[in-house]
Amino acid sequence: MAFSTLSSPALPLLFHYQKPKLSFLTSNIQTPFDYFPQLSTLNPKHHHKMSRTSSIKVVSDLGIVERAIQLVQSSPPTWQSALLSNIIIFTVGSPLLVSGLSVSGIGAAFLLGTLTWRAFGFSGFLLVATYFVIGTAATKVKMAQKEAQGVAEKRKGRRGPGSVIGSSAAGCVCVFLSINGVGGEAFTRLWVLAFVASFCTKLSDTVSSEIGKAYGKTTYLVTTFKVVPRGTEGAVSAEGTLAGLLASVLLASVGYLTGQTNVPGAAICVIAAQIANFGESLIGASLQEKEGFRWLNNDVVNVINVSLGSILAVLMQKIILQS
Q: Transmembrane residues, as ranges (predicted)?
């Protein structure tokens, strides 16, 4: 009976029985990450893909930063490096710029900074930045007292585009001469010297005027040496004159330390600045805004002042070289 049962037709089916495969089931099992993609950061498979993407992005960002640094450090400077450098510096230094310049003044200063970087690189830009910081600080000294006396600069000392252009006119001429290689290699150093002298002249003028208005005990008119009120055009004081001299020495030292000029050149810049400022005081006392000279305002006088400082520095340098 038992044998006959084993010999039944069902026997082959028993011998051919196989364990059911679960591949179909496992292949269709859905994970929580498939239903909720936002949880994919917890999924090792998705996290690996994300890590690779993030790494590529970081490497790409580092590449951009590295290229930007290389561009800023371009030697000789290029228009691209000058533009990028000024965008970065003006963005970082915007709080200081707003305190010393109007909006249009910032635009003029950005143009000046770009031109300066293109011609003389970081050293030239640093000289102009030093001039701006010291000049702005001097303008802010005892501002309330100056306002009460009616001798303070307009807009709380915030300079407009006219002031920026007037103060940098000679410097911009030197920039264009240098960029275009006017005079060749023999004149390259002269344009740099004239550039430094122009800003030494203007800084000395600004500081002497502002410190004189704040601390000058006795103010004299240069044409008659009569005592006049503080803030009178063409007036000078001992305190202001000394402060202006020290300011020009400081800025000329920056020019020396950054390699723009040597010691004799720095001394020339200081001397030229003092002579030019005396000439500016003479113009202010005798001609500025007098009948027939209404056009001779502060901005025009600034152009004359800085131009005189630059020209004197070049002439003095040429005389020394010839001798």
A: 87-113, 119-139, 160-180
Task: Classify 128 as helix, strand or coil.
Answer: helix
Residue 263 corresponds to which tokens in the numbers above?
Answer: 């010691």
Give first-to-last CA distance, the chain, whole Å: 139
Q: What is the structure's pLDDT at 13?
A: 44
- pTM value is 0.78
Task: Give the H/E segment covering residue 210.
Answer: helix 185-215
23 vs 99: which has the higher pLDDT:
99
Residue 110 to residue 116: CA distance in whole angstroms: 10
184-197 pLDDT, tens digit per residue, is 888 999 999 999 99
CA 71 to CA 91: how far, in whole Å?
Answer: 18
User: Residue 236 has what DSSP assignment?
Assistant: E
Give the Å distances, CA to CA, from 78 to 46, 70, 90, 179, 181.
Answer: 45, 12, 18, 10, 14
Instruction: Return d(Cα 196, Cα 96) in angstroms, integer.
Output: 23
245-261: b (≥16 Cβ within 10 Å) or e: bebbbbbbbbbbebebb
Classified as helix, coil or strand, 85 is helix
Question: One-letter amino acid identity for 281?
Answer: S
Give the chain's length: 323
Q: CA geometry: angle at 249 spanning 176 and 196, to 5°?
A: 5
For residues 123 and 134, what is the distance between their CA atoms, to the nearest angstrom? 17
pLDDT at res. 32 = 45
Confidence band for 168, pLDDT divided at 50, 70 and 90:
very high
One-letter amino acid at 7 equals S
Query: 59-85 as b/e, with b when 16 or more CB fall inside 10 Å?
Result: eeeeeeeeeeeebbeeeebeeebbbbb
CA angle 221, 224, 228 (to 5 degrees): 35
